[in-house]
């Protein structure tokens, strides 16, 4: 069996920098025509100037002949000004990313008080930039499995109301509450959904022992939440978008007494979504999810050209690279049921 789809886009990916960028980018560019690149580098991509420079490094790292467009994001901090937003827009930024300070990997420079950000959010709306939100509270009194649901109610719903012209994306939605919020929200609100949250529930963190390569943020949730995500994408709801949140880390940082969050999926991104849609009996919805919902929501043209997936299992390498800096991908040493067979118009 094979599936030919319009070339898709990834609406949330971590490409990093330097050697990791060089290794991750070909995986993403082989599958996606565009990708929204997260700005949580060290230091973060928090100025128009840094954004321009990072885009140039990404373009320089592209394999020869690749037809790939990075969509750049500005990292919001307590010090971001409306002028910086205007400068980022002039530099061709696509969106801004809101990390509540301390919520996840490299978010310490993030925002401590959302209410103080209102002038910046107004500037985003004015310049037509989307707001991409890591939707978790950082309150240590809130159980880590509840942080998304609490954020949606406490922070996100009021924010969407306060800014009636702003396009808002709840990134990597993981809960039934997050899904319900998007379903009920106005059409300018969407969510990205990762392949790993569609394929795994929180049991995967402890299958046969502690599994650091299944640790990400927001953390994997109960089966009923996974079901809610699968249902939303399987019914073809147009405001659930493909966003891998592929997040490479060196094995030494994952296999550690205090391992960091992030799952690398770019090596098999589309193939893993195909598995999830197949499980849901919704392979016929995969193309719209992967290639139409995103551009339609963001007001961008749909891609031309195609990619083809074949239902032919292959074994994922144990790692990409060598030594402590190697990146261990999802399904390392195990099989993925779909294989990328190539494409046209790429
Ligand atoms: O698992 C995650 N990894 N979640 C995030 O929010 C950040 C990401 C990363 O940058 O590693
Ligand atoms: Zn992310």
Helices and strands, with pairings:
Layout: E1 2-6, E2 9-13, H1 18-31, E3 34-37, H2 48-61, E4 69-75, H3 82-90, E5 95-98, H4 118-127, E6 130-133, H5 147-162, E7 168-170, H6 176-184, E8 189-193, H7 195-199, H8 223-234, E9 240-242, H9 251-254, H10 269-279, H11 286-298, E10 306-310, E11 314-315, E12 335-336, E13 339-344
Descriptive notes:
With 346 residues, this protein is an alpha/beta fold. The protein has a single domain (9-305), classed as Metal-dependent hydrolases (TIM Barrel, Alpha-Beta Barrel), CATH 3.20.20. The chain has 11 helices and 13 strands. The protein has an 8-stranded parallel sheet, with helices on both faces. Helix 2 links the parallel strand 3 and strand 4. Helix 5 packs parallel to helix 6. The longest helix has 16 residues, at 147-162. The protein starts with a strand and ends with a strand.
Number of strands: 13
The structural class is alpha/beta
Shape: globular
Strand content: 15-25%
């Amino acid at each position: 069996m094979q599936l030919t789809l319009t070339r898709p886009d990834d609406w949330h990916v971590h490409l990093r920098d330097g050697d990791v960028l060089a290794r991750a980018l070909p995986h993403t560019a082989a599958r996606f025509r565009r990708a929204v690149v997260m700005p949580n580098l060290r230091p973060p991509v928090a100025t128009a100037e840094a954004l321009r420079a990072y885009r140039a490094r990404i373009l320089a790292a592209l394999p020869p002949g690749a037809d790939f467009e990075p969509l750049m994001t500005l990292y919001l901090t307590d010090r971001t000004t409306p002028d910086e937003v205007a400068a980022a827009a002039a530099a061709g930024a696509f969106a801004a990313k809101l990390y509540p300070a301390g919520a996840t990997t490299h978010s310490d420079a993030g925002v401590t008080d959302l209410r103080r950000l209102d002038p910046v959010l107004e500037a985003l709306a004015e310049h037509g930039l989307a707001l991409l939100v890591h939707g978790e509270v950082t309150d240590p009194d809130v159980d880590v499995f509840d942080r998304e649901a609490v954020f949606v109610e406490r922070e996100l719903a009021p924010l969407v109301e306060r800014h009636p012209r702003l396009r808002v994306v709840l990134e990597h939605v993981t809960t039934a509450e997050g899904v319900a919020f998007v379903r009920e929200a106005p059409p300018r609100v969407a969510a990205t959904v990762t392949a790993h949250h569609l394929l795994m529930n929180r049991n995967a963190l402890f299958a046969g022992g502690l599994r650091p390569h299944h640790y990400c943020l927001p953390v994997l949730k109960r089966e009923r939440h996974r079901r809610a995500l699968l249902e939303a994408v399987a019914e073809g709801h147009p405001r659930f978008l493909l966003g891998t949140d592929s997040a490479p880390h060196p094995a030494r940082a994952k296999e550690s007494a205090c391992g960091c969050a992030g799952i690398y999926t770019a090596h098999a991104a589309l193939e893993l979504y195909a598995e999830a849609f197949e499980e849901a009996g919704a392979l016929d919805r995969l193309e719209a999810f992967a290639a139409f919902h995103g551009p339609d929501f963001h007001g961008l043209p749909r891609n031309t050209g195609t990619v083809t997936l074949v239902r032919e299992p292959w074994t994922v390498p144990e790692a990409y690279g060598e030594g402590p800096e190697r990146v261990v991908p999802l399904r390392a040493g195990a099989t993925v049921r779909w294989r990328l067979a190539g494409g046209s118009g790429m």
